[in-house]
Amino acid sequence: MTxxxxxxxxxxxxxxxxxxxxxxxxxxxxxxxxxxxxQVMKCEEVKLDFPRRNVxxxxxxxxxxxxxxxxxxAALFELLKIFKQLRKExxxxxVHLHSSKSGFLGRLAARLAGIRTVIYTxxxxxxxxxxxxxxxxxxxxxxxxxxxGGQVVCCSHSEWQAYHDIGINAVYINNGVSVRRSxxxxxxxxxxxxxxxxxxxxxxxxxxxxxxxxxxxxSFDDFEFIWIGGGPDRELLSARNITVTxxxxxxxxxxxxxxxxxxxxxxxxxxxxxxxxEALVLRKPVLLKDCTGNRDIxxxxxxxxxxxxxxxxxxxILRYYANREMLSVMGEYSKxxxxxxxxxxxxxxxxxxxxxxxxxxxxxxKTHLFTYASNRR
Length: 377
Fold this sequence. Notes:
By secondary structure, the chain is an alpha/beta fold. It is built from 13 helices and 13 strands. It has helices at 12-24, 43-47, 69-89, 100-113, 132-145, 157-165, 207-216, 250-258, 274-281, 310-322, 325-341, 344-357, 366-375, and strands spanning 2-7, 29-34, 55-59, 94-98, 118-121, 151-154, 171-172, 193-198, 223-228, 242-246, 262-265, 286-289, 304-307. It has a seven-stranded parallel beta sheet, with helices on both faces. The protein has a six-stranded parallel beta sheet with strand order 10-9-8-11-12-13, with helices on both faces. Helix 7 links the parallel strand 8 (193-198) and strand 9 (223-228). The chain is globular, with a radius of gyration of 20 Å. The two termini are 23 Å apart.
């Protein structure tokens, strides 16, 4: 098969998602049409982590994050031109759109180009955060885009629920990571109690909340907080016990996650965060803000906890610190839970099935794909 991926924010979690599909579907050809956010990571650096044999890249020059009518119209016509040129050169078996901007413009461009097999994965519902007007606007744009065709595929059950609640038909396939690679266990005791997160330092990840939590522990020498990543809101992480590493290579990021006592997420909303899934594989307890995506990763308090406020998060961290022996048990269950629910082989099997069957119209209820994925274990 030839699969065309359209990606506006070609960085961080979405780039990880596309790369995992390319790596797992090795017998298929992947064409990645991408924008670039240089303030996050240059696209040439992102490409270095992709395999070379079955993927090629096309730059989508006009794509941008903000809603700007004339720039977005230019991006639409550029994407339409790319689709038409690709159809002349080869058969396109499926177009997979990643993120809200790609999802809106990509569905319209695919409709105009006569492409039938179109999948849209939001990887974070855009209408879940921001001002009341912004949330309303994004809800209307998501609803309008459904008239262009395509199958909406959420990456967690809670994200599917958010789309269902606003009247949009969708299915869901959990994001997945490799659970078979050898991973390091918890670092030995005797070092500082380290709380780690990973991602862009932007409003969605709520660095203000992360800073508030860390600030409580500034006078405690035994605690340190690590933010792996970078972004425009880096100055909001001002507590003296926070270290911001900037963006690290994949293996170095894994090594840093492996030194954590606890993985912390303060996000306002997620699709399903890959960094948290990697923490599960590394046998880490997870302490996650209660939001879409995050709430699917915590298994009833056995492998971690959800929190709503900074006070709740602080109390959980103090409890973990006072009962360190339970962290190893929680971490083992994290690994087990990831193997059962978030194996990348199950994820890619479901997407392979979807690429082949989406045009038939049989995938209209969330249970179909998830049942298929579960039966493949």
